[in-house]
Amino acid sequence: MTTTTTPNAVLRVAPATPAEAAAHFRASLVFHADVSDVAAALAADGDPGFVVLDSRSTDSWDQGHVPGAIHLPTALIPEQAGQLLDRSVPVVTYCWGPGCNGATRAALALAELGYQVKEMLGGFEYWAREGFEYETWQGRERREADPLTAPRVAADDCGC
Questions:
Q1: How far is it, in rounded angstroms, from Cα 117 to Cα 93?
Q2: At CB < 8 A and 24+ separation, what contacts does 105-108 make?
Q3: Three-state SS across the chain?
Q4: In whole angstroms, what is the distance from residue 96 CA to residue 123 CA?
Q5: Distances (CA, A) of 160 to 33, 43, 70, 117, 157
Q6: Which of 5, 30, 40, 152 is deepest in the core (most CB within 10 A)?
Q7: b/e map of 23-45 (b: 16 or more CB within 10 Å)?
Q8: Nearest alpha-carbon partner for 50 in 94, 19, 80
Q9: d(CA 147, CA 160)
Q10: Residues near 20 by Cβ (< 8 Å), separated by ≥ 6?
Q11: CB–CB of 107/118 below 8 Å?
Q12: Once rounded to an integer, what is the mean pLDDT over residues 69-87?
């Protein structure tokens, strides 16, 4: 007698083949960058080769933003992107955080206008939570890194 068991929720749908998985994850990296990689590229000497775009409202921008970022709310991208951005320079968009798709909408609007674009995963929330310096209308600030999102000791990368 053969007994069939129902696989658990993880394996109910079989994993992709290694080749399919590699293609999927490679494609994901084409569209996304994470906070730590963006911060490291901006902190390195020289031009990082991209600009960072904050797609949030002015009130949100004033609460805090990535130093050196360009402020361009998503709704204004069609009319103002050409004045603020160079189409030959890739753009990394961000919004509030993982629960917000504003950076995705901004990236879509820019891509439709002919810009090369990536979305910064984690947004401003994870920028601040990982302890990176940010600017407010009052000046520069930095929070202590959340140990659940960043290494406890300062490091050039998280080891990921």
A1: 7
A2: 105/55, 105/74, 106/53, 106/55, 106/72, 106/74, 106/77, 107/31
A3: CCCCCCCCCCCCCCCCCHHHHHHHHHHHHHHEEEHHHHHHHHHCCCCCCCEEEECCCHHHHHHCECCCCEECCHHHHHHHHHHHCCCCCCEEEECCCCCCCHHHHHHHHHHHCCCCEEEEECHHHHHHHCCCCEEECCEEECCCCCCCCCCCCCCCCCCC
A4: 5
A5: 13, 18, 28, 23, 8
A6: 40
A7: eeeeeeeeebbbbbbbbbbbeee
A8: 94
A9: 15
A10: none
A11: yes
A12: 97
| Single-letter amino acid, residue 119 | E
Distance CA(67)–CA(4), nearest Å, equals 57
CA atoms of 143 and 78, how far apart (whole Å): 34
pLDDT at res. 157 = 58
- pLDDT more than 70, % of the chain: 91
- Identify the band that residue 131 occupies on the pLDDT scale cut at 50, 70 and 90: very high
